[in-house]
């Protein structure tokens, strides 16, 4: 079976599907559903693929594994040239974004919260949409990201290439990461991080450690490292441990999502500011997605693998809505924050 042909066929028939490739893998996996029923999960106990919004008060969509055809296929991509004609920057959004960032900095200086993530979306008009080609370009350009195309006729068509793992769990042992701080990738030699990015990263790491102490055993926090994500560099700290007996996958998800890397600190105050001030609906951007409760026959274990939905877009007819954001702390500069969103928007623009 050719997974890309099946993708086109199901999209034409308006039937739900998801195709995804995990970081640094050459295997694409796919779930193809037989009808357009829409199912939700609240306890994350069933085997399937979840697609969850930023707002954890909203429902998570699940494609049940037992109601879908599931395939895995090796990826063999022809070299695809990327567009030199990158779309122009959305200057009309600039004033609005800068105003919100400055308002957030003011609130942080008054100690209303320590950090908040401010995002925006950008609309790009397309002459045509070739979903198979867009997906192949994402696969080729972002080998160390979780790259997906997800579709449900009642919800929409989404693409993404996210560098951030929310969690991997095998039986009771889990791994997660804190990922924050951004700069343009000019090579990994002599990378210098400023205090703003280092502070932002430490806030995320401290939050995750605090959240997990109550529900885990043998929690281990690795040294922070610099990682590459396409045209950007980020700071990453890996964290692992084991769940206590009383804890479940749902407990772990609720402890982590949304992390300060996509929301802020304290979480409730930052989330309230976001919902009140961003002036648009994030929807599934900065939510999470991936496999839950997959039975691994080889290792005789139950595995879940979830990723934060960053560097993503929703495509509707010949329009792409690209989502981008950045973490704001007391040391943020509103003009630089705007420029960071422009750099992040290019992740999707170069594949359109």
Structural class: alpha+beta
The number of distinct helices, counting runs of at least 4 residues, comes to 7
CATH architecture term: 4-Layer Sandwich
Shape: globular
Count structural domains.
1
Q: Into which percent range does the helicity of residues fall?
A: 25-40%
In CATH, the homologous superfamily goes by the name: Anthranilate synthase
How many strands, which pairing sense, and closed or not: the largest β-sheet? 10 strands, antiparallel
What CATH calls the topology is Anthranilate synthase
CATH level 1 class label: Alpha Beta
Radius of gyration: 19 Å
The helix/strand order is HEEEEEEHEHEEEEHEEEHEHEEEEH
List segments where confidence is low: pLDDT < 50 over at least 5 consecutive residues.
none
Overall pLDDT score: 92
Head-to-tail CA distance between termini: 26 Å
How many extended strands? 19
Strand content: 35-45%
Task: Furnish the topology, listing elements before pairings.
Blueprint: H1 3-12, E1 17-21, E2 27-33, E3 40-41, E4 48-52, E5 60-64, E6 68-74, H2 94-109, E7 115-125, H3 131-141, E8 146-152, E9 156-162, E10 165-170, E11 173-184, H4 195-213, E12 216-221, E13 225-229, E14 232-243, H5 249-256, E15 264-265, H6 267-277, E16 288-296, E17 301-308, E18 312-316, E19 319-328, H7 334-349
Antiparallel strand pairs: 1-2, 1-8, 2-6, 3-5, 4-5, 4-16, 7-15, 7-19, 8-9, 9-18, 10-11, 10-17, 11-14, 12-14, 13-14, 16-17, 18-19
Helix pairs in contact: 2-7
């Amino acid at each position: 079976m050719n997974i890309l042909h099946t993708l086109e066929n199901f999209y034409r028939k308006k039937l739900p599907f998801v195709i995804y490739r995990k970081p640094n893998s050459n295997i694409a996996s796919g779930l193809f559903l037989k009808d357009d029923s829409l199912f939700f999960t609240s306890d994350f106990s069933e085997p399937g693929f979840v697609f969850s919004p930023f707002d954890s008060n909203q429902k998570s969509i699940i494609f049940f594994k037992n109601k879908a055809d599931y395939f895995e296929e090796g990826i063999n991509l022809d070299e695809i040239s990327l567009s030199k004609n990158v779309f122009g920057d959305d200057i009309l959004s600039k004033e609005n974004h800068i105003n919100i960032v400055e308002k957030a900095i003011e609130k942080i200086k008054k100690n209303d919260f320590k950090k908040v993530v401010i995002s925006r979306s950008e609309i790009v008009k397309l002459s045509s949409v070739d979903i198979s080609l867009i997906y192949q370009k994402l696969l080729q350009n972002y080998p160390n990201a979780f790259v997906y195309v997800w579709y449900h006729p009642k919800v929409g068509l989404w693409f993404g290439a996210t560098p951030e793992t929310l969690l991997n769990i095998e039986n009771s042992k889990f791994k997660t990461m804190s990922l924050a701080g951004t700069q343009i990738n000019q090579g990994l030699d002599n990378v210098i991080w400023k205090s703003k990015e280092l502070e932002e990263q430490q806030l995320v790491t401290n939050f995750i450690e605090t959240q997990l102490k109550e529900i885990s055993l043998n929690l281990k926090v690795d040294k922070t490292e610099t990682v590459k994500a396409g045209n950007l560099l980020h700071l990453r700290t890996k964290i692992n441990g084991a769940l206590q007996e009383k804890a479940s996958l749902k407990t772990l998800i609720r402890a982590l999502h949304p992390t300060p890397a996509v929301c802020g600190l304290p979480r409730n105050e930052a989330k309230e500011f976001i919902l009140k001030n961003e002036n648009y609906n994030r929807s599934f951007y900065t939510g999470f997605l991936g496999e839950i409760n997959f039975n691994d026959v080889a290792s005789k274990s139950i595995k879940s693998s979830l990723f934060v939905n960053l560097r993503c877009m929703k495509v509707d007819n010949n329009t792409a809505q690209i989502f981008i954001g950045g973490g704001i702390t007391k040391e943020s500069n509103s003009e630089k924050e705007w420029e960071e969103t422009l750099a992040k928007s290019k992740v999707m623009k170069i594949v359109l």
